[in-house]
Design brief:
The longest helix is centred in the first third of the chain and has 24 residues. The protein is α/β, with parallel strands linked by helices and 390 residues long.
């Protein structure tokens, strides 16, 4: 079996694809994978570390508002479309799996034109524009949340949850602390700002480190190219080791999760999924005006996270909150238990079962109507008009 994986723009969008690959390998399902992303996407390094062939294409980001990029996007998509057609002709995949993102649009359109089998996964609560543009070409659409089902044709949509990398779930706390050189007795605060890091969270940490190390130890992922020096470090003697900074964690990420007593991060769905599987108490700071806000709202309503507004939270507020949580173990435990109930933890199995059923028992479920070819050109014209005149 040959499978093209596509989507991204952030690593959070890519992780479910890696989870699917990982689970297939664990089950002994033989498959050859090719990842199609942007030419200089942040996902390229991670994908290649996973020994997956990577192909970069041109991609234009459609926006729901007018900008100069909106005018350029259709031409970038056309270029990406022809590049995708060439890749598909050469690789001859049996299946394309997409998690959305602007790079997936030309890939899905090309796959539909070549009469390939397509699965789209909708991660976030708020439906992505790219998935809306490609939904009619998909044979199946898997959704993390029940609310998302309303955005897609009922006959092809299925609720499965969000696949997660099982490699993130296997480490034990004491051993993880030893692996990272942490104090076995001190509580551990894990700070992460998404795959590219967070300028706000990094700045918050520069103003908070000196007080946080009085009562906890910290693992802080700043994002590639965003590292900074803790200027007062030399004045803290034995406490200086309590702050560990990394631009990015690869294999050690599982240790960081396992060691953490409390996690502070953004509201990307992959992060929230991993935190739910691991039952981690979490303080979540969504990106203002982003789809993360809706994710955070949902989790907050279920009392599974503490949500902070970055426009209203000072370093003083932050430090007091973290200290209060570490002093109140019941609150930490309750948050972790609630978080553990948020996500369907059988998503990996459901996704693989879906593939097995389709390929093993009823390949015809993937039949693509010949009218899709006409639909392909029709939707392309509609998109051109929509994004050029709005």
């Amino acid at each position: 079996m040959r499978i093209i994986l596509t989507g991204g723009g952030t690593m959070g969008a890519v992780y479910p694809l890696l989870a699917i690959k990982e689970t297939m390998q664990e089950k002994g399902i033989q498959a050859e994978f090719l990842f199609v992303g942007t030419r200089n996407g942040i996902e390229k390094e991670i994908i290649e570390r996973e020994n997956i062939l990577y192909k970069g294409i041109s991609a234009g980001k459609f926006r729901r508002y007018f900008s100069l990029e909106t005018l350029i996007a259709p031409f970038q998509v056309v270029k990406g479309l022809f590049q995708s057609l060439s890749i598909i002709k050469e690789f001859e995949p049996d299946l394309i799996i997409s998690v959305g993102g602007f790079v997936s649009v030309p890939v899905i359109w090309a796959a539909s034109f070549r009469n390939k089998k397509i699965i789209i996964h909708q991660q976030d609560i708020k439906t992505g524009l790219s998935n809306l543009l490609t939904a009619k070409m998909a044979n199946k659409i898997t959704c993390t949340f029940k609310k998302s089902l309303k955005s897609f044709p009922k006959e092809k949509s299925v609720l499965i949850g969000n696949p997660v990398r099982t490699s993130m779930l296997k480490n034990e706390k004491i051993q993880a602390k030893k692996n990272l050189g942490l104090d076995l007795k001190l509580p551990t605060l894990f700070i992460l700002g998404g795959s590219t890091g967070s300028e706000y969270i990094n700045h918050l940490m520069t103003e908070s480190i000196t007080r946080l190390v009085d009562f906890c130890q910290i693992i802080h992922i700043t994002g590639k190219g965003n590292s900074f020096d803790w200027q007062d470090k030399e004045n803290f003697g034995d406490k200086a080791y309590r702050y560990q900074q990394y631009e990015y964690l690869y294999d050690e990420m599982a240790d960081a999760y396992a060691a953490a007593d409390l996690v502070v991060g953004r509201a990307g769905l992959s992060t929230l999924t991993e935190l739910s599987y691991l039952k981690k108490a979490s303080v979540i700071i969504p990106i203002p005006g982003h789809q993360q806000v809706e994710n955070a709202n949902y989790f907050e309503r279920k009392n599974s996270i503490i949500r902070l507004d970055q426009n209203k939270t000072s370093a003083d507020d932050f430090v007091l909150l973290i200290q209060d949580l570490f002093e109140n173990k019941n609150s930490l435990e309750r948050l972790g238990l609630n978080m553990g109930q948020m996500m369907d933890q059988s998503a990996n199995e459901k996704f693989i079962d879906l593939i097995n059923v389709w390929f093993g028992n009823n390949v015809n479920i993937f039949r693509i109507d010949a009218l899709h070819h006409h639909f392909f050109f029709k939707i392309w014209v509609k998109c051109l008009f929509k994004f050029l005149i709005i």
